[in-house]
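Try this one yourself first.
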């Protein structure tokens, strides 16, 4: 496949006027901001010299009291007003977050838009607002350090984020007054931080396959990247948005609860205390073989071995996702040249051991796995803002699920296939189903199943003002465009008249990564069923068309062109077809009856044709008729 290099318009270098740009890693657990100074990326720490900003916001009745470490201190004492792991809610719908209820002990309310909101002492806040607070804090830190307003930022998102989640991230940035240069996938940013792109660029003939394994606090992402001829391409992405260090903490906290004989239900404060204890024990065990945990006036010993017992299945799940992504990318594990570790949880020796085992090579981890994403984002921001013209190469990403359109019978027609690199634009022609049809409703769906009901509905809109024509006469061109941030634009155009309609797809909040994974798995396991259903739906559409056409024809010409027995025969065939259309699950049976009806009505069709020709010719001379 020919790969395009893309450079941003209007970004000529201005040597003496460096622009102020930053990369922001808006993490579930921790967020960071970095910039490029004298060609080198650097994290911008807070006034106390701390790199990380815990992604935690504390609310009091007057508003936000604090963000970050200070806010995290309120975790145990004021849990309902101390909002953490908010990224898990960003761009999600109310239904999506039901499963998160246990891990996020907040009071939710929802509005009609379907976006969950949280009740705090200050009032109701949305995940977008909370994320904006974190971004604002980071931007403030950066502006202080760089001495002025920012010209723009690259903000990273998990590779798996869908349209709604990316849009919500952008909205949060806008709310925080930050100009977003680009959203960038986190694993891709990590690979840039290691300079893998430029390394390969120097050797024209070289191609390298890189797996980026990112295990953070709340999410797991695996990306398979290919670098060749100085261009960076994401071959496949996978992962789990509800798997990370938090889950290890929960597993350990649960063990603590049992060891302390605390019973099934804990109050919010007890729960937090156990989680904090579990987390610090886990982190210490990255250095030590065993730790002593003091919690609720009891001392317990946790060994590394015991911890592994508790969390091994979770690590195993990440390895499975890795294998799945390699299958998606159609590559063998042995062909991976480089593995990059990202995320605080990859500090655990057992994680890096297992990853090493899976790929059969030693992963790159020389850059702190907590910081690496922000570093890469800063590097990319520097290029996009126009400071670094050597690095005018940008990245190609892929879309995680196919984008399609609903066609007759509730079927999906894929327009852009999954794992297509973006930005991309594709168009396909469709036509009308009925004579004289003047409007067409376009239903945009995302997913890899055959039936619309198994896919996710992204948007609906109507193309109106199609000139009336016979069924199949109009040519409607539907174009899908996915921009570099992964956001979709759809337009439809009737080609003869030029009537056009378009929308920017801002999907209703909420396709979770799990849902994406689930939908993909379903599409594999249901492939055969789907084909059978597809066949059935196609025959049903055909049957409907035939029933409608023939009944209209009989109504009009039946009496004049058919005798009683012919008419009865045709009615019987149609009734049989109607009955099979309603009740049969077997597309072959339905196809056979369609054929029977076709044969039975052949003579009728021929007579109608004759009659209409005669009528058309009536009153015309032979010369006129032959004109
Ligand atoms: P996110 O990308 O979700 O914001 P991070 O990459 O900052 O997350 O990783 C945070 C997670 O890393 C937390 O679950 C934290 O407990 C874990 N973590 C940080 N340091 C260590 C360590 N030394 N050993 C084990 N886990 C760690
Ligand atoms: Mg992260």
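Now uncover the answer:
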């Amino acid at each position: 496949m020919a790969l395009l290099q893309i450079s941003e318009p209007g970004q000529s270098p201005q040597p003496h006027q460096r622009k102020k740009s930053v990369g922001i890693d808006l993490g579930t657990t921790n967020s960071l901001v970095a910039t490029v100074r004298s060609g080198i990326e650097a994290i911008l720490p807070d006034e106390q010299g701390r790199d990380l900003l815990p992604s935690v916001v504390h609310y009091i009745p007057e508003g936000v009291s604090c963000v970050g470490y200070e806010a995290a201190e309120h975790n145990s004492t004021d849990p309902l007003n101390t909002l953490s792991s908010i990224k898990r809610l960003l761009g999600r719908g109310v239904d999506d977050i039901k499963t998160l209820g246990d891990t996020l002990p907040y009071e939710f309310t929802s509005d009609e838009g379907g976006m969950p909101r949280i009740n705090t002492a200050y009032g109701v806040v949305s995940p977008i607002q909370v994320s904006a607070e974190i971004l604002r804090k980071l931007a403030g830190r950066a502006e202080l350090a760089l001495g002025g307003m920012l010209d723009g930022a690259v903000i990273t998102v998990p590779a798996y984020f869908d349209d709604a989640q990316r849009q919500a991230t952008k909205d949060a940035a806008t709310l925080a007054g930050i100009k977003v240069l680009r959203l960038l996938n986190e694993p891709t940013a990590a690979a840039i931080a290691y300079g893998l792109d430029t390394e390969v660029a120097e050797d024209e003939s070289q191609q390298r396959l890189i797996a980026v394994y990112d295990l953070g606090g709340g999410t797991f992402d695996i990306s398979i990247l290919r670098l060749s001829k100085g261009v960076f391409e994401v071959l496949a992405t996978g992962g789990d948005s509800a798997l990370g260090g938090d889950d290890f903490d929960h597993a350990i906290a649960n063990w603590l609860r049992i060891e302390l004989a605390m019973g099934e239900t804990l109050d919010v404060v007890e729960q937090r205390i156990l989680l904090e204890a579990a987390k610090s024990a886990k982190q210490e065990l990255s250095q030590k073989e065993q730790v002593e945990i003091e919690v609720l006036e009891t001392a317990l010993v946790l060994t590394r071995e015991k911890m592994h017992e508790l969390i091994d299945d979770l690590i195993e799940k990440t390895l499975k996702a890795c294998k799945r992504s390699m299958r998606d990318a159609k590559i063998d594990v042995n062909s991976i040249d480089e593995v990059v570790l990202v995320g605080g949880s990859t500090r655990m020796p057992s994680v890096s051991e297992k990853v090493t085992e899976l790929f059969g090579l030693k992963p790159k981890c020389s850059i702190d796995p907590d910081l690496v994403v922000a570093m890469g984002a800063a590097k990319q921001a520097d290029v996009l803002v126009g400071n670094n013209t050597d690095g005018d190469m940008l990245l190609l990403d892929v879309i995680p699920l196919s984008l399609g359109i609903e066609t007759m019978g509730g079927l999906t027609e894929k327009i852009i296939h999954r794992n297509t690199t973006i930005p991309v634009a594709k168009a396909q022609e469709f036509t009308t189903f009925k004579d004289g049809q003047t409007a067409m409703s376009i239903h945009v769906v995302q997913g890899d199943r055959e039936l619309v009901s198994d896919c996710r509905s992204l948007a609906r809109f109507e193309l109106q003002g199609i000139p009336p024509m016979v069924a199949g006469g109009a040519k409607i061109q539907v174009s899908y465009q996915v921009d570099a941030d992964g956001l979709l634009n759809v337009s439809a155009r009737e080609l003869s008249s030029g009537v056009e309609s378009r929308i920017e797809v801002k999907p209703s909040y909420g396709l979770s990564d799990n849902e994406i994974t689930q939908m993909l798995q379903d599409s594999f396991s249901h492939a055969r069923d789907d084909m059978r259903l597809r066949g059935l739906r196609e025959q049903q559409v055909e049957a409907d068309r035939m029933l409608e056409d023939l009944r209209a024809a009989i109504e009009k010409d039946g009496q004049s062109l058919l005798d009683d027995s012919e008419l009865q025969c045709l009615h019987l065939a149609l009734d049989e077809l109607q009955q099979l259309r309603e009740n049969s699950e077997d597309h072959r049976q339905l196809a056979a009856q369609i054929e029977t009806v076709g044969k039975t009505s052949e003579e009728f069709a021929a007579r109608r044709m004759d009659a209409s020709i005669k009528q058309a010719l009536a009153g015309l001379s032979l010369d006129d008729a032959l004109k």
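Discussion: The pocket of adenosine-5'-diphosphate (ligand 1) is lined by residues 27-30, 216-219, 244-246, 279, 282-283, 286, 343-345, 347-348, 370 (CB under 6 Å). The mean pLDDT is 84.
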